[in-house]
Automatic annotation (TrEMBL):
Keyword match Cell membrane: yes
Protein name: ABC-type glutathione transport system ATPase component
Top-rank taxon: Bacteria
Subcellular location: Cell membrane
An MF annotation (GO) of this entry: ATP hydrolysis activity
A Pfam family: ABC_tran
PROSITE patterns in UniProt: ABC_TRANSPORTER_2
Family: Belongs to the ABC transporter superfamily.
Stretches assigned to the ABC transporter domain: 53-295
Residue ranges of the region described as Disordered: 1-49
Matches recorded under InterPro entries: AAA+_ATPase (IPR003593), ABC_Ni/Peptide_Import (IPR050388), ABC_transporter-like_ATP-bd (IPR003439), P-loop_NTPase (IPR027417)
Assigned keywords, A-Z: ATP-binding, Cell membrane, Membrane, Nucleotide-binding, Transport
Amino acid sequence: MTERDRPQGHLGGVDRALPRGARPSGWRRETGGSPESSLDQAPPPDRHHDDLLAVDGLRIAHGDVALVDDVSFRIAPGERVGLIGASGSGKSLTASAIMGLLPDGLSAAGSVTLRGRELVGASERELSRLRGKDLGMVFQEPMTALNPAMRVGRQVAEALTVHGTARRRATARARELLDRVGLPERTARAYPHELSGGQRQRVLLTIALANDPALLICDEPTTALDVTVQAQVLDLVAEGVRDRGSALLFITHDLAVIASVCERVLVCRDGRIVEEGPVETVLSAPEHDYTRRLVEAAL
Ligand SMILES: Nc1ncnc2c1ncn2[C@@H]1O[C@H](COP(=O)(O)OP(=O)(O)OP(=O)(O)O)[C@@H](O)[C@H]1O
Ligand SMILES: [Mg+2]
């Protein structure tokens, strides 16, 4: 199937923004093994009704092997939360699970609610209504996330039309949004390969924020960029969520980035959250050995 044949639009731009190997297919609950699901075993703790996102006892497994185990955390509306941890600790899988975009072959159990609405077990149809509208996501590699055969302006406009904006309005709005992230007017007519890495990441951010999502998830959005461009993109992320009142889940290896962008941080190790707290506290006085080592390694 060529890029042109690929079905477009039904996921609000996020279908193009999948990491390699991921396929949007709704949530797959773990099957087999014990008849008791982890939901039966571990009822979710008290729900705070003002939470935007509540993750409770999230477990992601490959066969019998747990890759993410019993992860629970909350994000309040407008809150900016960092997720740090060594390579392979389960950060991206956690983000993919929230989006309902786990790679093939992996299963999930537990609970993920957005404004109290359960996403685990939700149909692909329900999830695609949320993705790109209530949930926006920016991945590390913009080139794999953008459609190489479609002009940038159209990709941004499509993120709006799939969620109900009329085409003419969406075309105009796409230009406004691209302008807002500092991209020149001609960008709308460009193809992704005609842009720099930093410009492509701005386009992805534009798509992710196009519908003013309640939660923006960024998975290492600046790792592939050089330092000055990184700073510009980070500023745009911070400004984008602030202007819209969106909450942010920001994944990175870079503790300095967490300190500049986030209020609270979660530390992930071997598929578990081992520490969480306000950024200043966790980075200046880490309680867990693992966090201490991460902080020392970053100095
Ligand atoms: N499709 C898959 N099938 C099997 N195992 C996987 C799959 N994707 C990820 N894993 C494993 O799950 C674990 C967590 O992966 P994940 O991508 O979430 O790590 P990460 O914290 O994002 O790492 P990095 O910082 O390198 O991006 C790793 O051990 C990885 O090898
Ligand atoms: Mg990752």
